[in-house]
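User: Structure please.
Assistant: Input sequence and predicted structure:
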Amino acid sequence: MTTAEKQKIAVIGAGIIGTMSAWQLAKRGFDVTVFEQWNSPNDRGASAGESRIFRTIYKEGPQYVPILKKSRDMWQELEHNQSSQVLQMCGGLMVGHPDQADVAAVISCAQAADLDHRVLNATEMSAEFPQYRLDDDEVGVFDPASGVFRPEAAVLSARKEAERLGAVFHPYTRALNIRSHSTAVMIDTQNGAQAFDKVVVSTGPWANELTGFDHKVLTPQRLVALWFPARDVPLHAPENMPVSIRRHAEGGFSCFPTLDGLSVKILPHHLAWTELDTVEDLPRFIEPDFVRAAEHAVARLMPGLEPIPIRVSTWTEGFTVDETPILGPIDADPRIILAVGMSGQGFKFSPMMGSIVTDMVESGRSADTLAAMDANRFEGSRS
């Protein structure tokens, strides 16, 4: 692509999806401008919270496996280019009764996609992974191709790689409006209007503000994580403890090995994630009943942790009604490409989200996308 042919592309939102999109767009020679209402990274959107899970055996279905495998290669490319480590492969577990829906889905995915895995009974789990307490009829499904992210470091690395390739970031610059004109797509900010050939909207939990979706389709939710001290820190380090997802009648949560040298992060799933009217409504003070319920689950299921959280943190994510991302150009103006509603899934395959976005900027389509992510499936719900 020559300088004269370069298309001007705007990316609105610089969390992990926006920075990955900026990286891939800049890599393919586009003139990329990124607008972010805060700075990048930050602790307000969906790319916060110290850790995220990478997993290849995916309970959402084997159709995601090719995207996950390609994403893993791209994570390694980013780490190489930036001389950084943002993904530590430590293996992963899905723990619960084999008939529980998510546990059964993981086993089914591993078999359908012919992925390396082991199903460990409670006795085997106790011997190999004593960090977890299982009932006698439970199992652990081990995925060796799983790991733990440092999300803030990942966002920073993606941003720096995009900048190295020519992308320009404008922090503290909120996009107020997107206007379609015959010759350009205009973005209004507090600093005035700018014209672009195409626009990528990757605004995470703020997505409703620019997309026109209502809360029946896409809702920001509050996520809460708690950090519990490990009695034996080395035993709970990534070298010895896989990242995991737990499903049990007394507690469901994601569990992350120690990254701060002291504690294990628990992200409860069995306690309701509060829906928010707007992200600005995010409460930072967490209700005592929520904390006590998380303490009970840890005391019951995590024998190596002190059931007393030393840190609690909140952040937000945008969830679609079908819990599947919204990805692609919109029918009303194909120059506007949406990459929103990641529904807690997007981080692990964000490099491929950026690649798919770039395909769509180039040609309007991508061979790597999934039909379920179609950006126009909720068109009747947009204002």
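The chain is about 25% helix and 30% strand.
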